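Quick one, tokens below. Sequence please?
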């Protein structure tokens, strides 16, 4: 903490010196260059992700789910009773961070499980529950090599605001399967329509 304060003070002193030494037109030009570099970096990063998604070969994720929770499964009162019996009662705020690229009409949250609903069908599943596994037996704690051996090499590995990720796309079914990785092991699984 003290080091951060000292660095901030040093930056303020250096900034003050630059403002006194350099004419305003050089300061404005320098600021403009920094802004352009930041915009360029952002555009390159976004373009890179879009190109990777387009070039990535599709991985079949048809009928993919976690245990009995399947994408596109109709939500019925019986399903909700079954989920509550297996995963406990719903909670207002789940213990997990849920960041999804899709909108849901409503959701059901359990302690380590989030289920997003759209048009009365399961649209997204986010899990940190060790009891839940994908159709290919990948669960919390599975290692990266096991993911690759089960799902193949048609994936994108990236780092995003939620961490290190391995993502598979099924372009025919519009399904995205993402494994959040921590220390080369699965920490969270996100399965969603896109």
């Amino acid at each position: 903490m003290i080091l951060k304060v000292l660095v901030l003070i040093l930056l303020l002193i250096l900034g003050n010196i630059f403002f006194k030494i350099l004419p305003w037109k050089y300061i404005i030009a320098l600021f403009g260059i920094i802004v352009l570099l930041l915009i360029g970096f952002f555009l390159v990063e976004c373009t890179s992700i879009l190109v990777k998604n387009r070039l990535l070969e599709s991985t079949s994720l048809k009928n993919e789910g976690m245990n009995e929770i399947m994408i596109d499964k109709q939500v019925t009162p019986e399903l909700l009773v079954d989920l509550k019996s297996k995963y406990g009662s719903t909670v207002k705020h789940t213990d997990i961070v849920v960041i999804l690229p899709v909108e849901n009409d409503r959701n059901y949250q359990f302690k380590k499980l989030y289920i997003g609903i759209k048009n009365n069908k399961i649209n997204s599943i986010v899990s940190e529950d060790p009891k839940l596994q994908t159709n290919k037996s990948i669960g919390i704690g599975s290692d990266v090599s096991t993911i690759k051996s089960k799902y193949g090499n048609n994936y994108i590995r990236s780092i995003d605001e939620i961490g290190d990720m391995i993502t598979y796309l099924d372009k025919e079914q519009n399904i995205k399967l993402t494994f959040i990785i921590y220390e080369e092991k699965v920490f969270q699984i996100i399965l969603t329509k896109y």
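The radius of gyration is 23 Å. The helical segments are 2-21, 24-55, 77-87, 144-151.
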